[in-house]
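User: Hi! I'm working on a homework problem where we have to compare a predicted structure to a textbook description. Could you give me the structure for the chain below?
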Amino acid sequence: MRNLILLTAPLDFSNKQNLTFARWTAARYFDVDKVLAAFGNMPGEMIDYGAKALKPVENYVSNYLKLWDNLDDPRVVQAWHAMNTWVTDNVSLAGGAFRQLIVDLYRNDKLMRGELVIRGERVDVSRIHANLLTVIAEGDHITPGVPV
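Assistant: Happy to help. Predicted structure tokens:
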């Protein structure tokens, strides 16, 4: 691999207290196998609801109030509609990938601890030699490792 571009990619899951998703998906609160048994895959709508619940007032009230306050400006309405369409265009996550995300990454932080195995080979991040561009919004409330 020559180049690697990451857009708000979660990598470090070690700080469980500052990661709301890590707390919500802890084994004592969230049975990943029961969810996947019911749905097969993790429905995109459920992922969206979880993300929106991180900032419920902003996502379920303020977002629509901003639209309401600007209904007379077609550019704002068009921009709001485009963003809302993009944000709500959810795709289900494959069950195995979701289980690995929750168990191996959120719960056990296996990537950063050097314990993640993919296709029978341990992932060693120190062996990745690629040009890296990682883009993370300041104060991101979803991606781990970013101050909120």
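For your comparison, note the following. The mean pLDDT is 89. The radius of gyration is 18 Å. Good luck with the assignment!
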